[in-house]
Amino acid sequence: MIIDKEGKQTLPLKAGTHTIAVKAVDNDGLENTETIKLKINGMVEQL
């Protein structure tokens, strides 16, 4: 599961491989995109 800054669940993920792209833009207009690949086996637990 993906959790935002307020602690709310935003995207539930099931078992399998998922690719998530995260894009950040600062006040000067500079931007960066990171791609994260997640592999989930079975149950997902919040630690």
Counted up, domains total 1
String of helices and strands: EEEE
Which band does the percent of strand residues land in?
A: over 45%
Major sheet size, sense and barrel closure: 2 strands, antiparallel
Structural class: mainly beta
- Name the poorly predicted regions: none
The helix count comes to 0
- Straight-line N-to-C gap: 11 Å
Identify the strand order in the major beta sheet: 1-2
Question: How much helix is in the residues?
Answer: under 10%
- What is the global morphology? flat
Number of β-strand runs? 4
Brief summary:
With 47 residues, this protein is an all-beta fold. It has no helices and four strands. It is 0% helix and 53% strand.
